[in-house]
Design brief:
By secondary structure, the chain is of the alpha+beta class. The protein is 41% helix and 26% strand.
């Protein structure tokens, strides 16, 4: 599989060194992996990589005397499954072109769709150990992604090759998750046909396990409140990806539930309908673009309105002003 994630560890830790120069040990050892070791003063990093046909797997261990920033480049759009296995604090992934920041807390995981571009990985002081794998999204086909509603916006972003990054809701990384990752990396084999079956089975198990974790945390326990939060997050993500053209009925398909019931749940916890929240998100996108000096025709296109007149009517209905009037009064 194409190595699309390029961590620029030398920018932070200097030239790669031999393993015996480091005092830190990897949290997990990747069998048959390609290893790189870095050391600058008292800060150290170990990168282990394995290139499979169906997935590219990374393990990164960092020990730093201060918080550090590791720049990285994405060559090809992929969905990444990241687990923060151990850390003294949260890590941040900064999308430099999209001006977005995603947080992953210790012992938590997330799926992140990252299009080609430049990014930064912010790591706290102390030791951090994380795993990342990105896989061929063609494993989702013939509707087999239907049960994983938390992945639907990311899968759709990948299929449309969206230029905007997006993230799933986060989930717990517990004993079983760590055991699955350890089993995956400890049993890798180069030049063996059964290796790809091993990787494929492990990827499927990690996806299923994350789905179980999300269900238990966000749906089974105080299910309505967690569902409302997931709805809120999905509406925002779809609006960022599809703009005004996004239809809320898609959520009923994603969640496998009646639209009216979902709307009632959202209203109960946020005191607004899903349509009202969608309008808020779109309006915020539009006002930010207008205040940045974009003409209304560009704003209409960026927010994916079918016609410019439709956008102008939407904007006036929610602000009482035309885009030009809004810029004149609010843009000072």
């Amino acid at each position: 599989m194409l190595k699309s994630l390029q961590l620029q560890l030398d920018a932070t830790f200097g030239t790669a060194v031999e393993a015996h120069h480091l005092t830190m040990k990897s949290l997990m050892v990747m069998k048959k992996g390609n290893n790189q070791h870095y050391k600058r003063a008292q800060s150290e990093a170990i990168l282990q990589e394995f290139d499979g046909l169906l997935a590219f797997i990374n393990l990164l261990d960092v020990k730093s005397t201060d918080k550090c920033i590791i720049p990285f480049k994405i060559i090809k759009s992929d969905i990444h499954l990241i687990h923060l296995l151990k850390s003294s604090g949260s890590i941040l992934i900064k999308d430099l072109q999209g001006n977005k920041t995603y947080t992953i807390n210790p012992l938590r995981g997330r799926y992140i769709y990252l299009p080609a571009g430049l990014y930064e990985l912010h790591i706290p002081k102390g030791q951090s150990h994380l795993s990342n794998l990105y896989f061929r999204c063609k494993i989702f086909r013939d509707g087999n992604e239907r049960p994983f509603h938390f992945l639907h916006p990311l899968i759709e972003a990948h299929r449309s090759q969206s230029i905007y990054s997006c993230v799933s809701i986060d989930f717990e990384v517990g004993t079983r998750t760590r055991a699955h990752i350890k089993h995956l990396v400890s049993n890798l084999k180069k030049g063996k046909l059964e290796n790809e079956e091993h990787i494929f089975t492990a990827v499927k198990e990690l996806i299923r396990l994350s789905s179980e974790k999300i269900f238990n945390e966000y749906e089974r326990v105080d299910g309505n409140e967690k569902t409302a939060l997931a709805l809120h997050d999905s509406i925002r993500t779809y609006c960022e990806l599809e703009g005004h053209s996004f239809t809320l009925t898609k959520l009923a398909e994603d969640f496998g539930a009646n639209f009216r019931n979902l709307n009632k749940i959202h209203f109960k916890y946020f005191n607004k309908t899903m349509q009202q929240y969608k309008n808020e998100v779109i309006l915020k996108q539009a006002t930010d673009l207008i205040l940045a000096g974009n003409p209304s025709s560009n704003v209409s296109d960026t927010c994916n309105f079918k016609h410019r007149d439709t956008f102008n009517h939407f904007f006036y209905r929610h602000t009482g002003m035309s885009p030009t009037e809004y810029f004149k009064t609010q843009g000072k």
